[in-house]
């Protein structure tokens, strides 16, 4: 018993907390199964390794700031026939991230752009990579606040450090000169050094207007798209697909009677 407690304390001091907690149960199991010393040790260390991976993944998910934990397996490709599932499957190998390439999802609101971006992020997190999620309005507000507080350069590291940076909702707000320059700097800073997954409801031809400067927009797109996979999504809103399938109308029926015009005096 003294030897057992000594072994348990050694495991804890070495950071093998899961193995220490399971030592008694695994010893009893090994005795019943007549495992060799090597098999017993291998199974115990494998359990410790799996638990460390689980905790690491959970920590990275929390730090990623993802809005949800939707996976690619949950995406209904039959509802969005404009998307080639083979292309998404290819992206899910994460070879694009290994090559520091970008992924751009284009399409109107609600067609599944963010779901696919998050799904790729979850795949990356499962594989030990780091991810950070931010909407464009959040990114601009964050850096403007950091600039006022005199910590802009330090705050930039948050957006340059992860293996994959997701920039969501590009196109929902008109950018002034300062905001456009922040987005341009972000794209330049991660160019060929880290992957970006970007979602936008704007065609590339509209980015000049979006960024209030055609020159900055052109330079931004030049770097963003140099090594990029562009997925253009067309179709009905993905968020309301279940309601549409059961025939729930999204607009008032056409036979609503018009309001009577007031009688002329």
TrEMBL record:
Transmembrane residue ranges: none
* SUPFAM superfamilies with a match to the protein in the record: P-loop containing nucleoside triphosphate hydrolases
Under the heading InterPro entries, the entry gives: AAA+_ATPase (IPR003593), ClpA/B (IPR001270), DNAC/IstB-like (IPR028350), IstB (IPR047661), IstB_ATP-bd (IPR002611), P-loop_NTPase (IPR027417)
GO BP terms: DNA replication
Write out the GO MF terms.
Answer: ATP binding
Give the top-rank taxon of the lineage listed in the UniProt record for this protein: Bacteria
Reply yes or no: does the keyword Calcium apply. Answer: no
Q: Report the residue ranges that make up the AAA+ ATPase domain in this protein.
A: 99-234
User: Sorted alphabetically, which Gene3D superfamilies does this protein's record hold?
Assistant: P-loop containing nucleotide triphosphate hydrolases (3.40.50.300)
Q: Which is an annotated Pfam family here?
A: IstB_IS21
Task: Please list which residues make up the signal peptide.
Answer: none
Entry keyword set: ATP-binding, Nucleotide-binding
Record family assignment? Belongs to the IS21/IS1162 putative ATP-binding protein family.
Q: Give the protein's recorded name.
A: IS21 family transposase ISChy4
């Amino acid at each position: 018993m003294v030897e057992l407690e000594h072994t348990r304390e050694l495991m804890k001091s070495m950071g093998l907390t899961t193995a220490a907690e399971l030592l008694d149960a695994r010893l009893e199991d090994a005795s019943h199964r007549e495992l060799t010393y090597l098999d017993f040790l291998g199974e115990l260390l494998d359990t410790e390794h799996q638990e460390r991976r689980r905790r690491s993944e959970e920590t990275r998910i929390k730090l990623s700031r993802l809005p949800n934990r939707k996976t690619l397996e949950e995406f209904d490709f039959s509802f969005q026939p404009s998307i080639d599932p083979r292309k998404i499957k290819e992206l899910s190998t994460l070879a694009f991230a290994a090559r520091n390439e970008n992924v751009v999802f284009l399409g109107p609101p609600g067609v599944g752009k963010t779901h696919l971006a998050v799904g790729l992020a979850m795949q990356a997190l499962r594989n030990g990579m780091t991810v950070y999620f931010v909407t464009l309005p959040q990114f601009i507000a964050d850096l403007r606040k950091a600039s006022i507080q005199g910590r802009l350069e330090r705050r930039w590291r948050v957006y340059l450090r992860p293996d994959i940076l997701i920039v969501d909702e590009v196109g929902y707000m008109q950018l002034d000169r300062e905001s456009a320059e922040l987005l341009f700097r972000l794209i330049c800073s991660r160019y060929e050094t880290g992957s970006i997954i970007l979602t936008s409801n704007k065609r590339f031809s509209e980015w000049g207007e979006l960024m209030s400067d055609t020159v900055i927009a052109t330079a931004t797109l030049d770097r963003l798209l140099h090594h990029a996979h562009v997925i253009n999504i067309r179709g009905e809103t993905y968020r309301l697909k279940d309601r549409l399938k059961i025939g729930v109308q999204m607009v008032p029926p056409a036979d609503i009677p018009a309001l009577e015009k007031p009688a002329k005096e």
